[in-house]
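Our working data are protein records whose layout never changes between entries. Instead of coordinates, the fold is spelled out as a row of discrete tokens. Here is such a record, shown just as it appears in the course material:
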Amino acid sequence: MALASRLTSRSDSDDEPSERTETVAEPTDDDGSVTDTALFRLGRVLFGGVLAFNAIDNLRNLEERIGYAEFKGAPEPDRTVPAASVGLLLGGLGVVLWRLPAAAALGIAGFLAGTTPVMHDFWNQDDPEEKQQEQIQFLKNTALFGAALAFARIARRSK
């Protein structure tokens, strides 16, 4: 069936305005065409690799990161900072290697959703420079959150 005829079908009646029925087919990646491209692999390595690097940096500087989380009012930073950093590391590596990619990407999304509003609460800052820096970090993490959701969606389609 031609793509145009799958997307629309029109009423044959001349008396009534034509009705348009749209069918949205769920795209698939059964042949791996998207996930097997060099551009997609590069995107995976950049996205997951940077996040894995940040997680390793967090683990190397754990006391400093715990102190900052404590300062920001994060709950139980002695436990949550190491756990979240390990989760981010596993998520980043999962995306890079494309192993359990949906779970890895959703883990990254969960990390970002949980930490971003607590750690980058620009709306609570009085100093304009601090406010701007926190807003930049908040927006960066929001973009990364969107990318994680996109990777999760692609991973689910490429099963």
Q: What stands out?
A: The radius of gyration is 22 Å. Residues 1-14 have pLDDT under 50 and may be disordered. The longest helix spans residues 128-157.
